[in-house]
Write a structure and sequence with these properties.
The structure is a single chain. By secondary structure, the protein is α+β, with helices and mostly antiparallel strands. It is 52% helix and 19% strand. The protein contains 4 helices and 4 strands; from the N terminus they run βαβββααα. Strands 1-4-3-2 form a 4-stranded mixed β-sheet. A hairpin with a 2-residue loop joins β3 and β4. The protein is globular, with a radius of gyration of 15 Å.
Length: 131
Amino acid sequence: VMVVVEDAGATGGVCKALAKHGYRVNPVAHDHAPPGRSDPEQWVKGYASADRVHVHIRVQGRGNHRYALLFRDYLRARPDMATAYGEAKRRLGAVLPEDSGRYADVKDPICDLIYLAAEEWATRTAWSPPD
């Protein structure tokens, strides 16, 4: 789940509200930055989880907000890519069921490949983030 806030200051309030409902909260986390995207501030987020629910709190207009929307829209436009990505995640989950760190280490380069293809798709189709 992605919650979008207008500015970074609102992240704390969202995290507090989630904590009241039993979520484990990390108000300052970082998304993996794809190749060529090095400004760390663009990848800061809040994060909360409970059971199998993961909530990412991102600031509108930052790189990680755009990334998530582009990634989603590209996979919707390319169901074959979405199927392949889903299979990669299933296999990783089977091999690394208790090691989320290693899971992310392997998944991140897969996401980078999808993201780079999505950027090319965005250029070809004149995609832009929805309001």
